[in-house]
Design goal:
globular, mainly beta, 4-stranded antiparallel beta sheet, 106 residues
Length: 106
């Protein structure tokens, strides 16, 4: 995992994301800064305005923020945002975070 300051307090590693591989999301953004005790990674695949296979992962609290590693099982686009157990959301000012997924072929 890279150690650096990223916009919105989100790091995705590795990038680019390859279908069938594991990806780690580190979050130290608004919810973490506000002292949330639990943070959930809200994920989905497909176009940013029409997610499918939506799932919430409970993130583990680390010294760097909240972190979750999971398998990327779809070859389209990974979309995500965050929420805490109090119903507060960080959705990147309405844009969410969105990454194209590669097949691994050149």
């Amino acid at each position: 995992m890279r150690e650096a300051e990223y916009p919105g307090g989100v790091v995705v590693d590795p990038t680019p994301i390859t279908a069938g591989a594991k990806v780690t999301v580190l979050y130290y953004g608004l919810l973490a800064e506000s002292g949330a005790g639990e943070v959930f990674l809200h994920t989905g695949y497909g176009p940013n305005d029409r997610w499918y296979d939506v799932y919430d992962f409970k993130m583990g609290k680390t010294t760097r923020g909240f972190e979750k590693t999971f398998d990327v099982n779809d070859p389209t686009r990974l979309n995500f945002c965050f929420h805490d157990s109090g119903g507060n959301w960080d959705n990147n000012a309405g844009s969410n975070w969105s990454f194209e997924i590669h097949t691994g072929n050149q």
